[in-house]
């Protein structure tokens, strides 16, 4: 299995990625994955909404791009 370094100033751990393919997801697994994706989008947009103009500039996102992303529905987009 390949070892992939995690870039962090505080913690220099490494993770090991599995080389075997994952099992075919069940219908419930696909539904759960969709719910998790919606949740991640919602949390990401909430975090983006709370950033200042300087913080947005630091991560390379314009204020108009951030406003466009925040205005999206977490369910459909």
TrEMBL record:
This is Uncharacterized protein YjiS (DUF1127 family). InterPro entries: YjiS-like. Pfam families: YjiS-like. Residues 31-66 form the YjiS-like domain. The lineage of its organism: Bacteria, Pseudomonadati, Pseudomonadota, Alphaproteobacteria, Hyphomicrobiales.
